[in-house]
Amino acid sequence: MTTYSTLRERLKVENLNGNAEDLAFFTHYLHNHENGVSKSYKERAIKFYKSLEETDNLVEEPGIQYLLPIKWDVNFPNPENPKFSFIDLFAGIGGFRLAAQYNQGKCVFSSEWDKFAQKSYEYNFGEVPFGDITKIDSNLIPNHDILFAGFPCQPFSYSGRNEGFKDKTRGTLFFDILRILENKKPKMFLLENVKGLKSHNKGKTLKTILDSLENLGYKLHWKILKSTDYGLPQKRERWYCVGSLENIDFQFPTKTKTNTTLREIIDTEEDSDALRLTDFEMKRIKYHFKNVSENNQRVQHDSSKYEPLTKKGKHGVFSFQKGDGSLRFHVGDSAKTQIQEAFYCTLDSYAPTIIANRVPKLWDIGRKLSVLEAQRLQGFPDKFEFPVSDNQAYKQLGNSISVPVVELIIKEMTKYL
Ligand SMILES: C[S@@+](CC[C@H](N)C(=O)[O-])C[C@H]1O[C@@H](n2cnc3c(N)ncnc32)[C@H](O)[C@@H]1O
Questions:
Q1: Ligand 1, atom 27, residue with closest C-alpha
Q2: Contact 197, 239 (CB under 8 A)
């Protein structure tokens, strides 16, 4: 039986050099050749494989059928006896896919246009996601039970005229979700976004989103959930929205474990230079603890090196330790006007939200999280691997989802399939 790892090596899948779309058709076909959805991918997959036979002599067997079935020796193969099918939009590194696979879901289509995220996705799941969703005809997408999408939040246009939802949302990525829902009508969907979506454009953005989904016939349930309520030491608050064609009594999962601390995911032996806080940061941290008074007043730092007209020069830099142990630096000493400048958490507390360009840092061990710790912070298992630079890995994890939270939401959803 052909293993995926030998095939990917032979076809140099990991390079994704200009042929990502061919590889998307090819790998989607390999995953779906024996279910009803293969027709979407078969023709292009065969054509691609034939072209390899003819041009590169890379392929020894005569014809794609001799490759099948594939032995999936990847970190996260599809479940053997799937209970539902799904599509993974704005797939990133496949946080939704992982959570859905844990619930015995089978992915039948994925889309993600960032080359580095595609690499991580392919490495762990053995599938190259399709690219730009705005260019994908929804007829290519197979029927599925659930649509997943953690979509970028973009402003809608409100021309003031009496426009329909299509006009308001056109040109945004949310429009593409609507377009796919309208054409494929999956039984359910799960959308995820930042907490700020709730108040974006004074609530108008959320209202447009909810109205346009309801307009397609979906009943909606949405809630802001915190990752710290589900066993992760990360204060990540996200908007989750479950839609269902049927009227269901959907309940978001109840809290599971609320007191996990960073100590549970930190490797205290880890001591790499690359993770250490800078001398400047360590000096400021030491200065705080040396100068803080018994009643934990704010400590003012030396701002003489800042230009007098800059915010720091004018208002000064202060540090303060919160009751949860975190140490915060801010500009200006009044609680109301201060601008947070730096945030350091501790082993015995939780981390702030990990986002694309911000890796949580700890003052007590004097370093930022490693990639492995950052993936634990999002609930990714240790065997998830990143075939990209550490900077890309942090960014991908920041963009992703807290896997255990989504796993529990999907578990609730599958009761109604
Ligand atoms: C918030 S992240 C979602 C990450 C994902 N939920 C995960 O678990 O990793 C949004 C993703 O959408 C991707 N994206 C943005 N525009 C896109 C487009 N037009 N087509 C496909 N993917 C797109 C970005 O590259 C990014 O990875």
A1: 92
A2: yes
Q: Which atom of ligand 1 is nearest to the CA of 91?
A: 5
What separation in Å is there between the alpha carbon of 245 and the centre of ligand 1? 25
Name the one residue in this structure whose structure tokens are 């949310």. Answer: 174
With a pLDDT cut of 70, the percent of the chain lying above it is 95
> Residue 118 in contact with residue 386, Cβ under 8 Å?
no
* Ligand 1 centroid from CA 112, angstroms: 6
Distance 136 CA to ligand 1 centre (A): 14
Contact 315, 331 (CB under 8 A): yes
Active-site residue set: 153
Distance CA 314, CA 417 (A): 59
Q: List all residues 6 or more positions away from 297 whose beta carbon is below 8 Å from its beta carbon.
A: none
Structure tokens at 351: 């981390």
Give Cα separations from 89 to 153, 192, 274, 370 (angstroms).
14, 11, 34, 28
In the chain, residues under CATH classification 3.40.50.150 are: 83-256+383-417
Q: For residue range 20-44, what is the model confidence (pLDDT) as tens digits?
A: 999 999 999 999 998 888 888 999 9
Pick the range with the lowest mean pLDDT from 132-136, 162-166, 365-369, 377-381.
162-166
CA distance 308 to 306: 6
Quickly state the pLDDT bin for 105 (edges 50, 70, 90).
very high
Return the SS3 of 156: coil
**Cβ atoms within 10 Å of 9's Cβ, excluding its own:** 11
Which numeric CATH code is attached to 83-256+383-417? 3.40.50.150
Ligand 1 pocket: which of 399, 400, 406 to mutate (most atoms <8 Å of CB)?
399
Task: Provide the β-strand partners of residue 321.
Answer: 327
Closest-CA residue, ligand 1 atom 13, reads 90
How far apart CA 253 and CA 149 sit, in angstroms, is 19
| Predicted model pTM | 0.94
Checking if the pLDDT of 61 tops 60, the result is no
- Alpha-carbon distance of 4 to 57, in angstroms, equals 19
